[in-house]
Each structure stands twice: as C-alpha cells, then as structure tokens.
C-alpha cells in the first residue's frame, strides 16, 4: 500500500486536543449527573449507564475521523495499466560557436549567455524533444533529439568555441544539418532556434529556404550581443587574455549584432525574432512555447496504483451513522 498525499496524516495530531476535550466533557457530565441522583436511580428511569453510551459515541467519532484523514491521504494498492499519449514539439537549437561569440558586450560573454539561454528554455519544457547543433564554418550534432533534459543540458555546457580550422559563420551548414535531423514523428511540429550574433559570412541561407518551407519548419532567431558591438578577445588554452582579434591590416575587429538578416529569416519562415537583451521579449518567447500546438509524439503503457480512498471514506461515514443512532434512552417494547 502507498499514499498519494501522506502529509495529510499530520492532521491526526489535531485529534489529541479533541480527545482531551472529550475526556474532560465526559468527566464533567458524570460529575454533574452524580450530584442529582445515584447511578441506580438513573437506571430505573429507563436510561443506560452514564458512562457506556457517551464513551462509545466519542470513540466512534474519533475512529471515524481517523478513517477520514486516511481517505484524504489517498491510499492506493493494486495496479492497473493505462495507455499514455505523449504530446510535444521538436526543438533544435543551432548554437553559433564562431570566435565572435567570445565578445563580452553582454556579460560574461555571448557564448556563456547563449548556453544559459538554452538551458533556461529546456527547464521550461515537459514532454518536448530537444536537440543541439553547434556551428561555425561547419556544423556538428552536439546532442541528437532527446527527451532527456539533463543530458541535453550537460552537452550544452560541454559545447566549446569551434577550432580555427572550422571558423567562419555559415547559416546554410547549420540549417542543412537541422533538416537532416530525423523527426520523432511525422505529425510533429518542428521549431529551430537560431542562436547567433547574426554575422553570416557565407550568406547562403536563402539557398535552403525552399526546403525549410516545404518541411514547414519555423525558425526563431535569437540575437546575441548588442548592435554597437564589441572587440573579440583572444585567450590561450588556460583562458588567460592574450590580446584582441585583428584583421589582415592590423586593425581591431569589432563584431556587431546583425539583426537585419535575423529578422529576414524569421519573416521568411513564419517565426519571430528575439533579442536576448530584451527581457520582456524572452518572457513572451517562453509563454508562446507553452501555448504552442503539440501533437502526439509517441505512445506508451504505464502501470499506475489504483486509488482506494473510497474504502476508508465509507467506513468513516458508517461509523458516524452508528454514532447518531446510539441513544442513552432504553427502548422498551410493550406487548399490545
């Protein structure tokens, strides 16, 4: 046996003062009665003993209350099997891992804030599938579609900036890989979160737009950074600062949030653009996800305990009825 709400058993503590009050009342009543007549005289009047019925009535009330509290606690025993339909949507996060994501125009830096954003969104989900693709000049699957949110968050934290040989930012590579990521269900809605500073150096994303529309993918670009931009720090393997990224002419490179292309991607795919620094906008995003239409992704059979609260509830009611029927007056049957 188990209980669905065992904390209700704490209500039994309130029975202690109730029992004390009943005991005081019982003694007081007996003392008052003894002051008027003896127990023998009381019995001759056709009443029962001054003790037996009140004691029984009080006991029935206490036991009935114990059964009512047990019913509230939700006793369960036995098992039954039921079919469970798991509804959700499929979300793929495209995380920009280019050098520009090291910029510190938002603290501690763009890349750390982007990973924290992904984990925040995942924490607000329940039965949706999530996956992670990291990209710069090339794209790689960091986490395939899964419903294991803890694994997703661990792999997100493990993501790192791409090595120099994979640098450059190419939205086409990321979107192409997202298209190849298989669906959990053919009926499910699929959302892509493009988390980037918007600096697409290859500018090929429009070449894959037709396929995205045919697959009915919705892209929500999320801009990381600020439009005025910031320089890109360079660090050694120990994380120590060793300078700033410069171009071929020795000028310091300044990376800026490119919102124009991100707004275009959102408009072309039926999504909506959000800037990470807009807290109100991010709140709208999380609320929209909760109301998004979800389809059945998979079905499973689960075993559940059978609720049995009606048994103690019925016993408690029966005990109260018996308590009401108990009277101190003796019933005398006369022959006609």
Features:
3-stranded antiparallel sheet; 13 strands; 336 residues; single chain; 10 helices; 38% helix; alpha/beta; 23% strand; 6-stranded mixed sheet; elongated; Rossmann fold; 2 domains
What features would you describe in this structure?
The longest helix has 22 residues, at 15-36. This protein has helices at 15-36, 39-44, 52-72, 110-123, 149-158, 171-180, 209-214, 259-269, 279-291, 310-325, and strands spanning 2-3, 75-88, 90-96, 129-135, 139-146, 190-196, 218-223, 230-231, 233-235, 241-244, 254-255, 274-275, 295-307. With 336 residues, the protein is α/β, with parallel strands linked by helices. Helix content is 38%, strand content 23%.
Number of helices: 10
Whole-number tally of structural domains: 2
Shape: elongated
Largest sheet, if any? 6 strands, mixed
Multimeric state of these chains?
single chain
Radius of gyration: 36 Å
Low-confidence stretches: none
CATH architecture of the largest domain: 3-Layer(aba) Sandwich
CATH topology of the largest domain: Rossmann fold
Structural class: alpha/beta
Q: CA-to-CA gap between the ends? A: 55 Å
Using DSSP, what is the number of strands?
A: 13
Q: What is the H/E string?
A: EHHHEEHEEHHEHEEEEEHEHEH
- The CATH class name of the largest domain reads Alpha Beta
Strand order of the largest sheet: 5-4-3-6-7-12
Average pLDDT, all residues: 82
